């Protein structure tokens, strides 16, 4: 639905959504009107397997399959038991790297389920990466993926943060995620961060991004995800008295020099040309304003200013004691 130039093809998107809707209507429920449940789960599992198999058959590996749940990463990886993506030589290398890595663990830690269950997957070229794994296991998976010994990596979005691990293909298992409160569509910034892993510099002419959708998505939502702007980065730097005092206490450091090179100051300096152009536009608009009978309006304004000034002086004159006290005598009526 998005070509190499970044153009969003709404017609293709609508056709894909219509096809998805027709397939969903045909597969929804059974003869008793029941829907969802285990049957829908099995359908989703087979779809993941079919997508990964298609990617391997078309030589689009390596692929990163992003899922927004640790449990889903493991479940989807376990569905790939029928796939064997590594040669015998690659399996020997995986065994060597994995065994050398876990030598630092105690004998009891080596018997942990995640340690014992991970090696069979790695030998077949399938990896798992999420925050629930031991740090040594995550590091091992990253090394194997970087060396090309993992062809399909099931990971959460944390894998896209701070790691330079590109792939040829990126696959999203769902367009929605749970943010701690409710399920929402992924933002364009999240999509850009994860889809940016598709395409290896010097190896691939272009990256491939596949977004699996299991529900009706409007073209507006789809376009906002794949073509939206990334989230802006704004400095939260605020100068405080304690900060200035601490800088003054350090020798050979000029506080002004430090502040001028802060990201906050950089953003403010970058905004100066915009403000300058805006001031020029306002000045140009001011100069083009023509006022009819300008002399009469100016004279009227000066007279009004003079009347206001004289009125204020007159009020102060009336409230002086020498003029006010003679009228303030006992028995005199005063209207307030």
UniProtKB/TrEMBL annotation:
GO molecular function: ATP binding; helicase activity; hydrolase activity
Signal peptide (from-to): none
PANTHER family: ATP-DEPENDENT RNA AND DNA HELICASE, EXOSOME RNA HELICASE MTR4
Cellular-component GO terms for this entry: nucleus
Alphabetized Pfam families for the sequence: Helicase_C, MTR4-like_stalk
Name of the protein: Helicase C-terminal domain-containing protein
GO BP term, pick one: maturation of 5.8S rRNA
Top-level taxonomic group: Eukaryota
Record organism: Solenopsis invicta
Entry-linked CDD domains: SF2_C_Ski2 (cd18795)
Lineage summary: Eukaryota, Metazoa, Ecdysozoa, Arthropoda, Hexapoda
Start and end residues of each Helicase C-terminal domain: 47-251
Keyword presence, Nucleotide-binding: yes
Gene3D superfamilies reported for this sequence: 1.20.1500.20, P-loop containing nucleotide triphosphate hydrolases (3.40.50.300)
UniProt cross-references to InterPro entries, sorted A to Z: Helicase_C-like, MTR4-like_stalk, P-loop_NTPase, RNA-DNA_Helicase
Keywords, sorted A to Z: ATP-binding, Helicase, Hydrolase, Nucleotide-binding
């Amino acid at each position: 639905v998005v070509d190499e130039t970044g153009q969003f093809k709404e017609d293709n998107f609508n056709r894909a959504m219509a096809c998805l809707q027709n397939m969903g209507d045909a597969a929804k429920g059974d003869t008793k009107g029941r829907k969802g449940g285990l049957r829908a789960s099995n359908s989703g599992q087979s779809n993941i397997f079919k997508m990964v198999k298609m990617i391997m058959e078309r030589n689009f590996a390596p692929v990163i399959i992003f899922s927004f749940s640790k449990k889903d990463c493991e479940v989807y990886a376990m569905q790939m038991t029928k796939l064997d993506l590594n040669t015998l030589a690659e399996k020997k290398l995986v065994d060597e790297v994995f065994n050398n890595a876990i030598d630092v663990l105690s004998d009891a830690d080596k018997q942990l389920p995640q340690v014992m269950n991970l090696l069979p997957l790695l030998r077949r070229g399938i990896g798992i990466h999420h925050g629930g794994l031991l740090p040594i296991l995550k590091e091992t998976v990253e090394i194997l993926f970087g060396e090309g010994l993992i062809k399909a990596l099931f990971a959460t979005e944390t894998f896209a943060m701070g790691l330079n691990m590109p792939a040829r293909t990126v696959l999203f298992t769902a367009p929605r995620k749970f943010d701690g409160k409710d399920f929402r569509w992924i933002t364009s910034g999240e999509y850009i961060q994860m889809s940016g892993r598709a395409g290896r510099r010097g190896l691939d002419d272009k990256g491939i991004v596949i977004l699996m959708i299991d529900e009706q998505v409007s073209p507006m939502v789809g376009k906002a995800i794949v073509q939206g702007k990334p989230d802006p980065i704004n400095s939260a730097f605020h100068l405080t008295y304690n900060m200035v005092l601490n800088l003054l206490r350090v020798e050979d450091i000029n506080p002004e020099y430090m502040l001028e090179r802060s990201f906050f100051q950089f953003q403010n300096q970058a905004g100066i040309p915009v403000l300058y152009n805006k001031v020029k536009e306002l000045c140009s608009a001011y100069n083009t304003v023509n006022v009819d009978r300008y002399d009469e309006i100016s004279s009227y304004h000066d007279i009004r200013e003079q009347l206001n000034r004289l009125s204020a002086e007159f009020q102060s004159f009336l409230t002086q004691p020498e003029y006010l006290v003679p009228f303030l005598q006992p028995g005199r009526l005063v209207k307030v």
